[in-house]
Amino acid sequence: MRQHSIVRRLLADPASALGAAIVALFVLAAVFGPALTPFDPNQSIYESVRVPPSAQHWFGTDHLARDVFSRVLAGARSALLLAGGGTLVAVLFGTAIGLVSGFRGGWLDEVLMRFFDALLSLPALLLALLLLGTLRAAYGESVSAIGRGLGVFLVLAVVYTPIVARVVRSVALGVRGRAWVEAARLQGERLPRILLREILPAALPALAVEAALRFSYAIFLISSLGFLGVGVQPPNPDWGLMVNEGRRNLSQVPWAMWAPAVTIAVVVVGANLLADGLKRALMERDLQREKDA
Amino acid sequence: MSAPLLELRRLSVAYGGLTALREIDLSLQTGETLGLVGESGSGKTTLALAVMGYLPPEGRVTGGEIRLAGRDLAAATRAELRAIWGIELALVPQDPFTSLNPALKIGAQLAEGLRLHRGLTRAEAQARAIESLREVRLPDAERLAAAYPHQLSGGQQQRVLLALALSARPRLLVLDEPTTALDVTTEATVLDLVRDLLAETGAAALYVSHNLGVVAGRTQRTAVLYASELVEDAPTAELFQRPLHPYTRGLLDSLPRPGQRRAAQPLAGMAGRIPPLNDLPPGCVFAPRCPLANEQCHAERPPLEEAQPGHRVRCHRWPEILAGTADPAQPLTATAPALARAAEPLLQLEDVTVAYPLRRTLAEVLAGQPRPAVQAVAGVDLQLGKGRTLGIVGESGSGKTSLARAIVGLAPHSGGEIHLLDLALPPDVQQRARPLLAQLQMVFQNPEEALNPYLTIGESLSRPLVNLLGLRGPALAARINELLEAVRLPAEYAARRPGQLSGGEKQRVAIARAFAARPELLVADEPVSALDVSVQASILNLLHRLQDEQGAATIFISHDIAVVAYLADDVAVMYLGRLMQTGPAAALFKPPHHPYTEALLAAIPGGGAAGVRLAGEIPSALHPPSGCPFHTRCPHSLGELCETETPPWQATANGKQIFCHIPPADLLALQPRPEARP
Amino acid sequence: MFAYLLRRLGFLLLTVVLTSLLVFLIAQVLPGDVCRVILGREAGAARLAECRADLGLDEPAAVRYLTWLADFLRGDWGESYATGEPIREWVLGRVRMSIMLAGVAFVVAVPLAVGLGALAGLLHGKWPDTLISIGSLAVVGLPEFVTAIVLIQFAAFRFPWLPASSAIPVGTPFREALPALILPALTATLVLLAYIARLTRAGVVEELRQNYVRTAELKSLPRWAVLLRHVLPNALLPTITVIAISTGWLVSGLVVIENVFNYPGLGRLLVFAIDRRDLPTLQAIVMVTVVAFALANLAADLLYAALNPRIRVGE
Fold this sequence. Notes:
The complex is a heterotrimer. Chain A has ten helices and no strands. Chain A is 78% helix and 0% strand. Chain B is built from 24 helices and 24 strands. The radius of gyration of chain B is 26 Å and the shape is globular. The model of chain B has no long low-confidence stretch (mean pLDDT 88). By secondary structure, chain C is an all-alpha fold. Helix content of chain C is 79%, strand content 0%. Chain C is built from 13 helices and no strands. Chain C starts with a helix and ends with a helix. Chains A and C meet through helix 4, helix 5, helix 8, helix 9 and helix 10 of A and helix 1, helix 6, helix 7, helix 10 and helix 11 of C.
């Protein structure tokens, strides 16, 4: 019932509903996209080079005569796998660390948080470039797509875990002194149950907002890496990479650049809208609760 | 009678579709002080803000008029209100800690209004600001004017807000629970100050409070609000002596009077709960809780009628109540008489100390200095017998909560020993085995936080049963039902979540949970102070009924000395982490007292007699005063002896132990005897 | 205040040490054998051994880290694997270029963003707020490279005299570099603008709810006085921290922007170093950025402390 009312509040606001719809569409595209592509995203269609958008090629074809719509659709999966996967790992680790650190407090908390502060002073893109650059320097082009993917994944996890951990920690720190948690300790609850049943539920709202935000930043980061030519390698359909390729042929096939560029923007803005909407819905609910009380 | 200064005519206010005030008629003469009493949800703060013309954005006057000296404020524009605010009409808000701008100096905050309205120069305004700080009896006004709010205590901040409100000599002062956030002794001094200042400036005052006692000695008239309705309005003395509305009567009976003891005069708790604004009863709003309610009461809204000159009441049955043919008092729930128990010792505290370590700076670490610590509890010795009730009284910073938490293991004690029967308790709750945990349970102050909002009531109640008693299956379900029944809640509550319960109901569940594992000792830390007055008495009754039934000993902690005296067998008074006085509750109100106890007794709101008042602030526990910790504020300090020597424990003739240099006989001569009570 | 300063300085040191450790782990330990990287796969065992001895790879990792850190602190950053140039001069020349770009963006973006954010916050719920909020959200969602390309297209159409490529020589004086700076700085400005404005707005809205605002209004102060004297000083204090955090945002943005415009800053060099597998240059760039970022944060902390009476004036 509680969750239900949040979803209702969220969907009642047009902007948040739009954000939720965009994210949902994106996830659907990532799951089913590769099966639905009308053309092979990496295959040139020799009879139709640089065709403008049409009924057959919705987003036209690019300078190598590949169907842009198929490529955009196919690109959704790697974007979701990397951004979603990286976010998920960061959320899992961040939650675990944040819960323990916030509940235990003391020197452990102090050390972890100082360490995370330091980690946070490394801009994410910089760390990603360092890691991927080193991999390339050490192992050359032989680093497989999977290796690069793992690298990006790792960077996202390393950079976002501290952020998520801090969010969860601050909630845990606030909640651990609440009477219901103290009562649980007096009633002989064991630590895992205290963390998961007494504290975690209180952190879920903030966690949901943070996850949506992290996800949007992750898409952003991955497309930046693609654009810089450090992430996924051609000819794989990566949105950032497609923008970069499209830009070189902008005068002949502008649609080949605009289609992925707009897609990135729409997904990032959508995830941002969702995060904003979630935050607002939760705030309104809390206000409502205060009034009821 | 001249035209009233403030007149509300059939004033109605709504938030969205919710009625917060319904057709309020009320007036206030020039220079008069009117108390406005109500519980949360009664609409009293809404009324205060409506009079100020400062309703929150979603609030709206839906009918009626607010006339201040003839002008209708309900119809006034913002610009018109701005010509009145601060000049004719001023507010003293409830929460001093957030009501001053943290980024501006006190002097500047006082001066800016003066510069604007009176066209004073910067220097003149500053001088006037310092003057107004002196008016509210703040010592060292120049220094305070140059300070920021965070450097002031709550009491000082509230005085600054009072100075601010009075600086332009308004004709009407609206005080919205001005002392609720303050300690009892601070509250007493601020209340005295308000009374004196009102007399000096001749301002009229609308005094909003949830506390009848606060209003009692300080207002000429008192109006009672309940669930958006004005239910009674009378001269204060008459209202207290002969309340006509059953709700007013219930409120008066809910509070223990000083010296009232539970064995002789039990409190009559009010049944039920305050109706939420979206679900007001169709007839009289109080009918569902009223012992006199009949069919007419449930069906028909009573009119506000003048029962006696100046005494108005909104009740169908006032003529019978006035004639004495109907009794509006709440029925007493039968309580088992407390059994005389052998004082077999249960809990023993020896020299217990609780210290919270502070952080050291890097330089201090390098210099090898020991870690500084705040001593929240310093060397406390106490005993508690089986089945007895020990009350601990003190203000914030007295260490009473730390002591309670040390006993249950939430704040590990750093020195001394705590014995339960013959067992020395491990300091940290994590080191205590489950059978031991079952012996010691606690009821917390804030019912809003007492229950995990994500679990159902049944789940919350099941945890101690599963963990500590090992119950499973049908036995578990049966015991949960038993517990709900014991705290007078319907069995279907097991499936509800805390969000669906009122504050009082949550506290009932929390009490049920604490008694679930049949503890030997229950620690109750201010269990009713966050509840509405009308609910408090029934919770107190519930607590001591369960305690009697189960034979559990109780430590009852409160800032309210009257409540403690009512409930407890023995009372301990704490100040700055130390015990000041111990002794039987029956002797608490009879001198000789420790001077601090004397001040606490004098500060009881509604106690009437103005006794000693404490000057200054509670010293920091980080650097407690030398000698007697109370000497910096003691009205009877002997000077050097008290400043340098630790006081001895002295026994009095009526069975108290007092931590004081002054001989009990001398104290007896210094302290007034309590007035004889019928 | 003094203790606060010491604590912040200590934290700065800790940050640099921890991040340098991370950089060392990634750049020195992760690749396995640096000599193989330098000499290639076909190098003989003898040359590899010689190289390892030269670079001190036989030492334990802790010693290698300390030597590496000491070298960095001394300013001995080595030579580029790609061009053989001394890295320090190379990198520092580019640092100047990047700071020039970032400086222009900051000077334009910060006052504008704070102004717009505060305006939106003060008028929250009204149409200027909606406009600013939607606008900033859209810009936050646009990756820098998209914004940059849009701007290039727009400028080519409306202001054909603006150079679309900013490939100027390193060391160009500010005055001469200005035309080449306009488009990249504008891109960076837009990104910063949206980010700072959003957070400033949130701060102002939060502050408007505080009780002291009521106290001020009930003094009959005019609306502007309530906002300027009471709300804004409290609301803007936290934006100092926001601006400091946004420097990290800017660092990432600059890498992309410099590459879109071929502007010869640190970010361009970074991608060049990756392309050419120039590991020492890569490390040096990351370390310089970390130090610069940490210093910016320290400056913000100190400013915050100096302006916040709760820190400046103790209890």
